[in-house]
Amino acid sequence: MVPATLSVVTLGARDVGRLREFYLGLGWTTAVSLDDFAAFELRGAVLALFPLERLAADGRTEAAAPERGMRGFSLGINVDRREQVDEVIEAVRAAGGRITKEPVDAEEFEGRSAYFADPEDNYWEVVFISEGPVTQAVRRATGRA
């Protein structure tokens, strides 16, 4: 059986320093900060930054060519109140993040959402989901149940 856990997300970075500065600008706390590696303490997981070529080599593969746009996944920041979506997006904008979807009432579920991309086009969704099974699962996963 494979444990159903996600404790670390590692982003392969073309420029670790630039990404580190962006996430520091969001007010995130570093657990480790080296020339070629950074780790941020998030609620429920750790976000790590590692050079893309070295990450690919560690996984015994080749690094994909840098792409612009959505790569088939997004990272999620769930917030507790509808208005927090707007507040978070304004903080991201102030830190130099690129807003790809302004805050709107969601079409796919009851709530509110927005998207931003970091300097290397890693996409983050900021989302408020009305009370339900997904909200409850997120609270349990992040220790806020």
Structure keywords:
single chain, 145 residues, alpha/beta, 2,3-Dihydroxybiphenyl 1,2-Dioxygenase, domain 1, 4-stranded mixed beta sheet, 8 strands
CATH architectural arrangement of the largest domain: Roll
Here the CATH topology of the largest domain equals 2,3-Dihydroxybiphenyl 1,2-Dioxygenase, domain 1
Q: Quickly count the helices.
A: 4
Largest sheet properties? 4 strands, mixed
The dominant shape is globular
Q: Quote the average pLDDT.
A: 92
Counting DSSP E segments of at least 2 residues, the number of strands comes to 8
Which residue ranges are poorly predicted, with pLDDT under 50 across at least 5 consecutive positions? none
**Name of the CATH superfamily of the largest domain:** 2,3-Dihydroxybiphenyl 1,2-Dioxygenase, domain 1
Taking all Cα atoms into account, the compactness measure Rg is: 16 Å
Order the strands across the largest sheet as they lie in space. 1-4-3-2
How much beta, percentage-wise? 35-45%
Structural class: alpha/beta
Description of the structure:
The chain is 27% helix and 35% strand. With 145 residues, it is an alpha/beta fold. It folds into 2 domains: 64 residues, 2,3-Dihydroxybiphenyl 1,2-Dioxygenase, domain 1 (Roll); 79 residues, 2,3-Dihydroxybiphenyl 1,2-Dioxygenase, domain 1 (Roll). The strands form 2 sheets. It has a 4-stranded mixed β-sheet. A 4-stranded mixed β-sheet has the order 5-8-7-6. It is globular, with a radius of gyration of 16 Å. The chain starts with 7 loop residues before the first strand and ends with a helix. The model has no long low-confidence stretch (mean pLDDT 92).
